[in-house]
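Aminotransferase
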Amino acid sequence: MVIAPISSRIRQSADEKRAVVKFGQRIFSGGLGPDACDFLFGNPQEMPLRGLVEALIRHAEPRDTQWFAYKQYEPVAQEAVARSLTRSRGRPYAAADVAITAGGFGAIAAALLAVLEPEEEVLYPRPGWFNYGVLTRGAGGTPVPVDLVPDSFDLDPGAIAAAISPRTRVVVVNTPHNPTGRIYPRRQLDALARVLAEASARHGKVIYLLADEPYARIVLDGRTHVGPAESYPYTLIAYSYGKTLLAPGERLGWLALGPDMPEPDRVRLREAVTTAQVAHGWGFAGRTLQRALPELEELCIDIAALQSRVRRMVEGLRAAGYEVPMPEGTFYLIPRSPVPDDRAFAARLAEGGVWVLPGSLCDLPGRLRISLTANDAMVERSLPVFARAIREARR
Protein backbone atom coordinates (compact mmCIF):
# COMPACT_ATOMS: atom_id res chain seq x y z
CA MET A 1 0.00 0.00 0.00
CA VAL A 2 1.29 3.47 -0.88
CA ILE A 3 1.68 5.72 2.15
CA ALA A 4 0.60 9.32 1.60
CA PRO A 5 3.60 11.63 2.16
CA ILE A 6 3.64 14.37 4.76
CA SER A 7 5.98 17.31 5.19
CA SER A 8 9.33 16.30 6.67
CA ARG A 9 9.32 19.55 8.67
CA ILE A 10 5.97 18.74 10.21
CA ARG A 11 7.02 15.15 10.87
CA GLN A 12 10.11 16.38 12.73
CA SER A 13 7.98 18.79 14.74
CA ALA A 14 5.49 16.03 15.57
CA ASP A 15 8.34 13.81 16.72
CA GLU A 16 9.69 16.62 18.90
CA LYS A 17 6.32 17.33 20.52
CA ARG A 18 5.12 13.76 20.81
CA ALA A 19 6.13 13.31 24.45
CA VAL A 20 4.31 16.47 25.56
CA VAL A 21 1.25 15.71 23.44
CA LYS A 22 0.97 12.12 24.67
CA PHE A 23 1.44 13.27 28.25
CA GLY A 24 -1.43 15.75 27.91
CA GLN A 25 -3.69 13.29 26.11
CA ARG A 26 -3.11 10.58 28.70
CA ILE A 27 -3.96 12.91 31.56
CA PHE A 28 -6.94 14.76 30.15
CA SER A 29 -8.57 11.72 28.53
CA GLY A 30 -9.20 10.29 31.98
CA GLY A 31 -10.06 13.61 33.62
CA LEU A 32 -8.33 15.07 36.64
CA GLY A 33 -11.18 14.74 39.10
CA PRO A 34 -13.15 17.45 40.92
CA ASP A 35 -10.60 17.90 43.72
CA ALA A 36 -7.49 17.71 41.57
CA CYS A 37 -4.76 20.30 41.96
CA ASP A 38 -4.01 21.28 38.36
CA PHE A 39 -0.52 22.82 38.05
CA LEU A 40 0.04 21.56 34.51
CA PHE A 41 -0.26 23.86 31.51
CA GLY A 42 -1.22 27.28 32.82
CA ASN A 43 -4.96 27.06 32.29
CA PRO A 44 -7.08 29.33 34.52
CA GLN A 45 -8.63 27.80 37.63
CA GLU A 46 -10.82 30.78 38.56
CA MET A 47 -13.51 32.72 36.70
CA PRO A 48 -12.26 35.17 34.04
CA LEU A 49 -11.64 38.83 34.78
CA ARG A 50 -14.98 40.60 34.69
CA GLY A 51 -13.51 43.48 32.70
CA LEU A 52 -12.50 41.03 29.95
CA VAL A 53 -16.00 39.57 29.74
CA GLU A 54 -17.68 42.98 29.69
CA ALA A 55 -15.33 44.33 27.01
CA LEU A 56 -15.97 41.35 24.74
CA ILE A 57 -19.74 41.63 25.17
CA ARG A 58 -19.66 45.37 24.51
CA HIS A 59 -17.60 45.12 21.32
CA ALA A 60 -19.35 42.03 19.95
CA GLU A 61 -22.59 43.98 19.44
CA PRO A 62 -22.59 45.00 15.73
CA ARG A 63 -23.10 48.66 14.82
CA ASP A 64 -23.04 48.35 11.04
CA THR A 65 -23.14 45.70 8.30
CA GLN A 66 -19.33 45.58 8.08
CA TRP A 67 -18.78 44.91 11.79
CA PHE A 68 -17.46 41.39 11.18
CA ALA A 69 -16.04 41.96 7.68
CA TYR A 70 -12.46 41.20 6.63
CA LYS A 71 -9.94 43.55 8.18
CA GLN A 72 -6.32 43.03 9.10
CA TYR A 73 -5.80 45.59 11.87
CA GLU A 74 -8.02 47.89 13.88
CA PRO A 75 -6.14 51.23 14.20
CA VAL A 76 -7.44 51.70 17.75
CA ALA A 77 -5.67 48.46 18.75
CA GLN A 78 -2.37 49.43 17.11
CA GLU A 79 -2.51 52.88 18.67
CA ALA A 80 -3.23 51.50 22.14
CA VAL A 81 -0.25 49.14 22.00
CA ALA A 82 2.06 51.87 20.66
CA ARG A 83 1.00 54.26 23.46
CA SER A 84 1.55 51.61 26.10
CA LEU A 85 4.99 50.67 24.77
CA THR A 86 6.07 54.31 24.48
CA ARG A 87 4.96 54.98 28.04
CA SER A 88 6.52 51.87 29.60
CA ARG A 89 9.75 51.65 27.60
CA GLY A 90 10.72 55.25 27.04
CA ARG A 91 10.99 54.93 23.26
CA PRO A 92 8.67 56.36 20.57
CA TYR A 93 6.86 53.28 19.23
CA ALA A 94 4.77 53.90 16.11
CA ALA A 95 1.30 52.40 15.65
CA ALA A 96 2.26 51.37 12.11
CA ASP A 97 5.03 49.20 13.58
CA VAL A 98 2.55 47.11 15.60
CA ALA A 99 0.92 44.05 14.06
CA ILE A 100 -2.06 42.65 15.98
CA THR A 101 -1.81 38.86 15.94
CA ALA A 102 -3.62 35.69 16.90
CA GLY A 103 -1.85 35.40 20.24
CA GLY A 104 1.83 35.02 20.98
CA PHE A 105 1.94 31.99 18.69
CA GLY A 106 0.81 34.21 15.84
CA ALA A 107 3.31 36.92 16.70
CA ILE A 108 6.28 34.54 16.67
CA ALA A 109 5.09 32.78 13.53
CA ALA A 110 4.69 36.09 11.68
CA ALA A 111 8.14 37.25 12.76
CA LEU A 112 9.85 34.06 11.59
CA LEU A 113 7.94 33.86 8.30
CA ALA A 114 8.76 37.51 7.59
CA VAL A 115 12.55 37.21 7.91
CA LEU A 116 13.63 33.59 7.36
CA GLU A 117 15.00 32.15 4.16
CA PRO A 118 14.66 28.35 3.79
CA GLU A 119 16.92 26.44 6.19
CA GLU A 120 18.19 29.55 7.96
CA GLU A 121 18.76 29.00 11.66
CA VAL A 122 16.84 30.21 14.68
CA LEU A 123 18.72 30.03 17.98
CA TYR A 124 16.50 29.70 21.03
CA PRO A 125 17.02 29.03 24.76
CA ARG A 126 17.17 25.60 26.35
CA PRO A 127 15.40 25.00 28.70
CA GLY A 128 12.50 26.89 27.23
CA TRP A 129 9.05 26.89 25.71
CA PHE A 130 8.37 23.69 23.82
CA ASN A 131 7.06 25.32 20.63
CA TYR A 132 10.05 27.30 19.39
CA GLY A 133 11.26 24.38 17.29
CA VAL A 134 7.79 23.74 15.85
CA LEU A 135 7.30 27.38 14.83
CA THR A 136 10.79 27.56 13.36
CA ARG A 137 10.25 24.50 11.19
CA GLY A 138 6.82 25.78 10.20
CA ALA A 139 8.53 28.88 8.81
CA GLY A 140 11.02 26.74 6.88
CA GLY A 141 13.89 27.36 9.26
CA THR A 142 16.26 25.17 11.23
CA PRO A 143 15.92 25.22 15.05
CA VAL A 144 19.14 25.42 17.09
CA PRO A 145 18.71 25.23 20.89
CA VAL A 146 21.40 26.96 22.96
CA ASP A 147 21.82 26.09 26.63
CA LEU A 148 21.35 28.71 29.31
CA VAL A 149 23.90 28.88 32.11
CA PRO A 150 23.24 25.85 34.36
CA ASP A 151 21.45 26.50 37.66
CA SER A 152 21.32 30.32 37.30
CA PHE A 153 19.61 30.01 33.88
CA ASP A 154 21.28 33.23 32.76
CA LEU A 155 21.88 34.03 29.12
CA ASP A 156 25.25 32.79 27.92
CA PRO A 157 26.45 35.28 25.27
CA GLY A 158 29.59 33.18 24.71
CA ALA A 159 27.53 30.06 23.95
CA ILE A 160 25.27 32.06 21.63
CA ALA A 161 28.29 33.52 19.83
CA ALA A 162 29.72 30.04 19.37
CA ALA A 163 26.40 28.75 17.98
CA ILE A 164 26.02 31.53 15.40
CA SER A 165 26.85 30.41 11.87
CA PRO A 166 26.56 31.98 8.41
CA ARG A 167 23.02 30.53 8.31
CA THR A 168 21.83 32.17 11.54
CA ARG A 169 19.04 34.71 11.05
CA VAL A 170 17.18 34.95 14.40
CA VAL A 171 18.11 34.65 18.07
CA VAL A 172 15.20 34.25 20.50
CA VAL A 173 15.27 35.68 24.03
CA ASN A 174 12.38 34.90 26.37
CA THR A 175 12.24 37.23 29.38
CA PRO A 176 10.81 36.77 31.97
CA HIS A 177 11.77 33.24 31.12
CA ASN A 178 9.43 30.26 30.95
CA PRO A 179 9.87 28.07 32.95
CA THR A 180 12.64 29.41 35.23
CA GLY A 181 11.15 32.84 35.99
CA ARG A 182 14.48 34.56 35.27
CA ILE A 183 14.45 38.24 34.22
CA TYR A 184 17.62 39.00 32.30
CA PRO A 185 19.46 42.13 33.47
CA ARG A 186 20.51 44.91 31.14
CA ARG A 187 24.19 43.89 31.24
CA GLN A 188 23.38 40.45 29.79
CA LEU A 189 21.16 41.93 27.08
CA ASP A 190 23.85 44.49 26.22
CA ALA A 191 26.42 41.69 25.97
CA LEU A 192 24.10 39.75 23.68
CA ALA A 193 23.55 42.86 21.55
CA ARG A 194 27.30 43.17 21.04
CA VAL A 195 27.48 39.53 19.98
CA LEU A 196 24.66 40.00 17.46
CA ALA A 197 26.06 43.25 16.06
CA GLU A 198 29.51 41.71 15.58
CA ALA A 199 28.10 38.55 14.01
CA SER A 200 25.83 40.56 11.68
CA ALA A 201 28.83 42.58 10.47
CA ARG A 202 30.96 39.45 10.10
CA HIS A 203 28.39 37.55 8.05
CA GLY A 204 27.16 40.52 6.07
CA LYS A 205 23.49 40.24 7.05
CA VAL A 206 21.27 41.35 9.90
CA ILE A 207 20.70 38.81 12.66
CA TYR A 208 17.38 39.66 14.29
CA LEU A 209 16.64 39.36 17.98
CA LEU A 210 13.13 38.04 18.66
CA ALA A 211 12.11 39.10 22.16
CA ASP A 212 9.38 36.74 23.37
CA GLU A 213 7.76 38.70 26.21
CA PRO A 214 4.33 37.30 27.16
CA TYR A 215 5.21 37.60 30.87
CA ALA A 216 6.51 41.18 30.68
CA ARG A 217 3.89 42.37 33.19
CA ILE A 218 4.03 39.32 35.43
CA VAL A 219 7.04 40.39 37.49
CA LEU A 220 7.38 39.73 41.20
CA ASP A 221 8.79 41.41 44.33
CA GLY A 222 8.66 44.89 42.84
CA ARG A 223 10.99 44.08 39.96
CA THR A 224 10.67 45.62 36.52
CA HIS A 225 10.80 44.00 33.11
CA VAL A 226 13.95 44.71 31.08
CA GLY A 227 13.36 44.73 27.33
CA PRO A 228 15.97 43.58 24.78
CA ALA A 229 14.79 46.17 22.23
CA GLU A 230 16.50 48.91 24.24
CA SER A 231 19.82 47.09 23.79
CA TYR A 232 19.61 46.00 20.15
CA PRO A 233 17.87 47.94 17.35
CA TYR A 234 17.02 44.93 15.18
CA THR A 235 14.58 43.54 17.72
CA LEU A 236 11.06 42.26 17.12
CA ILE A 237 8.89 41.98 20.24
CA ALA A 238 6.24 39.26 20.53
CA TYR A 239 3.54 39.58 23.17
CA SER A 240 0.42 37.68 24.26
CA TYR A 241 -2.49 38.87 26.39
CA GLY A 242 -3.18 35.24 27.32
CA LYS A 243 -0.98 35.53 30.43
CA THR A 244 -1.95 38.94 31.79
CA LEU A 245 -5.66 38.23 31.25
CA LEU A 246 -5.29 34.53 32.07
CA ALA A 247 -7.37 33.75 29.00
CA PRO A 248 -5.06 31.74 26.75
CA GLY A 249 -7.93 30.47 24.62
CA GLU A 250 -8.70 34.00 23.39
CA ARG A 251 -5.97 34.43 20.80
CA LEU A 252 -4.83 38.04 21.12
CA GLY A 253 -1.27 39.32 20.88
CA TRP A 254 0.99 41.63 18.94
CA LEU A 255 4.35 41.89 17.22
CA ALA A 256 6.16 45.22 17.45
CA LEU A 257 9.22 46.39 15.57
CA GLY A 258 11.97 47.96 17.66
CA PRO A 259 11.75 51.78 17.37
CA ASP A 260 15.53 52.16 17.02
CA MET A 261 15.55 50.03 13.86
CA PRO A 262 16.31 52.22 10.81
CA GLU A 263 13.13 53.53 9.21
CA PRO A 264 13.71 51.97 5.75
CA ASP A 265 14.08 48.54 7.35
CA ARG A 266 10.95 49.03 9.44
CA VAL A 267 8.96 50.00 6.34
CA ARG A 268 9.98 46.77 4.59
CA LEU A 269 9.32 44.68 7.69
CA ARG A 270 5.81 46.12 8.17
CA GLU A 271 4.76 44.80 4.78
CA ALA A 272 6.63 41.52 5.29
CA VAL A 273 4.93 40.86 8.64
CA THR A 274 1.46 41.60 7.28
CA THR A 275 2.08 39.32 4.30
CA ALA A 276 3.41 36.63 6.64
CA GLN A 277 0.18 36.78 8.64
CA VAL A 278 -1.79 36.15 5.45
CA ALA A 279 0.56 33.31 4.49
CA HIS A 280 0.15 31.81 7.96
CA GLY A 281 -3.57 31.37 7.36
CA TRP A 282 -4.94 34.84 8.12
CA GLY A 283 -3.09 35.07 11.41
CA PHE A 284 -4.79 38.28 12.52
CA ALA A 285 -6.71 38.59 15.78
CA GLY A 286 -10.50 38.67 15.47
CA ARG A 287 -12.11 42.07 15.14
CA THR A 288 -14.00 41.86 18.43
CA LEU A 289 -10.76 41.22 20.30
CA GLN A 290 -9.01 44.01 18.42
CA ARG A 291 -11.75 46.51 19.16
CA ALA A 292 -11.67 45.53 22.83
CA LEU A 293 -7.87 45.73 23.03
CA PRO A 294 -7.61 49.33 24.36
CA GLU A 295 -9.67 48.25 27.37
CA LEU A 296 -7.91 44.90 27.73
CA GLU A 297 -4.56 46.68 27.67
CA GLU A 298 -5.46 48.19 31.05
CA LEU A 299 -6.38 44.84 32.65
CA CYS A 300 -4.17 42.31 34.40
CA ILE A 301 -4.51 39.45 36.83
CA ASP A 302 -3.92 40.35 40.48
CA ILE A 303 -0.12 40.33 40.72
CA ALA A 304 -0.19 40.85 44.49
CA ALA A 305 -2.38 37.76 44.90
CA LEU A 306 -0.08 35.80 42.59
CA GLN A 307 2.94 36.95 44.59
CA SER A 308 1.30 35.75 47.79
CA ARG A 309 0.51 32.39 46.19
CA VAL A 310 4.09 32.02 44.94
CA ARG A 311 5.51 32.77 48.37
CA ARG A 312 3.14 30.35 50.08
CA MET A 313 4.03 27.57 47.66
CA VAL A 314 7.78 28.19 47.83
CA GLU A 315 7.75 28.32 51.64
CA GLY A 316 5.61 25.18 51.86
CA LEU A 317 7.80 23.24 49.45
CA ARG A 318 11.01 24.33 51.16
CA ALA A 319 9.60 23.39 54.54
CA ALA A 320 8.88 19.90 53.16
CA GLY A 321 12.47 19.60 51.97
CA TYR A 322 12.30 20.58 48.31
CA GLU A 323 14.98 22.68 46.63
CA VAL A 324 13.08 25.40 44.78
CA PRO A 325 14.28 28.83 43.59
CA MET A 326 12.11 31.91 43.98
CA PRO A 327 11.09 33.12 40.50
CA GLU A 328 11.58 36.75 39.47
CA GLY A 329 8.65 36.67 37.06
CA THR A 330 6.07 34.40 35.37
CA PHE A 331 3.81 32.08 37.38
CA TYR A 332 6.02 28.97 37.34
CA LEU A 333 8.06 27.18 39.98
CA ILE A 334 10.76 24.63 39.14
CA PRO A 335 11.50 22.54 42.26
CA ARG A 336 14.10 19.82 41.96
CA SER A 337 12.63 16.34 41.93
CA PRO A 338 13.79 14.37 45.01
CA VAL A 339 14.42 11.39 42.71
CA PRO A 340 16.28 11.48 39.36
CA ASP A 341 13.26 10.26 37.39
CA ASP A 342 11.06 13.36 37.37
CA ARG A 343 8.33 11.58 35.39
CA ALA A 344 8.07 8.85 37.99
CA PHE A 345 7.89 11.43 40.78
CA ALA A 346 5.23 13.43 38.91
CA ALA A 347 3.24 10.20 38.61
CA ARG A 348 3.54 9.68 42.37
CA LEU A 349 2.15 13.17 42.97
CA ALA A 350 -0.68 12.48 40.54
CA GLU A 351 -1.73 9.51 42.66
CA GLY A 352 -2.47 12.06 45.37
CA GLY A 353 -4.40 14.31 42.99
CA VAL A 354 -1.56 16.78 42.36
CA TRP A 355 -0.69 17.23 38.69
CA VAL A 356 2.59 18.85 37.66
CA LEU A 357 4.61 18.85 34.45
CA PRO A 358 7.74 16.67 34.56
CA GLY A 359 10.75 18.85 33.86
CA SER A 360 12.09 16.45 31.25
CA LEU A 361 9.21 17.53 28.99
CA CYS A 362 10.56 21.10 28.91
CA ASP A 363 14.32 20.42 28.87
CA LEU A 364 14.58 20.54 32.66
CA PRO A 365 15.36 16.92 33.57
CA GLY A 366 15.37 16.26 37.28
CA ARG A 367 12.93 19.09 38.03
CA LEU A 368 9.19 19.69 38.01
CA ARG A 369 7.29 22.62 36.51
CA ILE A 370 4.44 23.94 38.66
CA SER A 371 2.07 26.48 37.11
CA LEU A 372 0.52 28.73 39.74
CA THR A 373 -2.45 29.74 37.66
CA ALA A 374 -4.04 27.38 40.16
CA ASN A 375 -6.17 28.86 42.93
CA ASP A 376 -5.18 29.20 46.58
CA ALA A 377 -7.31 26.24 47.67
CA MET A 378 -5.38 23.98 45.29
CA VAL A 379 -2.11 25.20 46.77
CA GLU A 380 -3.26 24.37 50.29
CA ARG A 381 -4.58 20.94 49.29
CA SER A 382 -1.38 20.13 47.41
CA LEU A 383 1.20 20.90 50.07
CA PRO A 384 0.49 17.83 52.26
CA VAL A 385 0.70 15.68 49.12
CA PHE A 386 4.06 17.18 48.20
CA ALA A 387 5.30 16.62 51.76
CA ARG A 388 4.13 13.00 51.84
CA ALA A 389 5.65 12.25 48.42
CA ILE A 390 9.10 13.53 49.35
CA ARG A 391 9.05 11.61 52.63
CA GLU A 392 8.21 8.40 50.80
CA ALA A 393 10.89 9.09 48.18
CA ARG A 394 13.55 9.38 50.90
CA ARG A 395 12.74 6.10 52.62
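thats it. The two ends are 54 Å apart (CA to CA). The longest strand covers residues 168-174. bye
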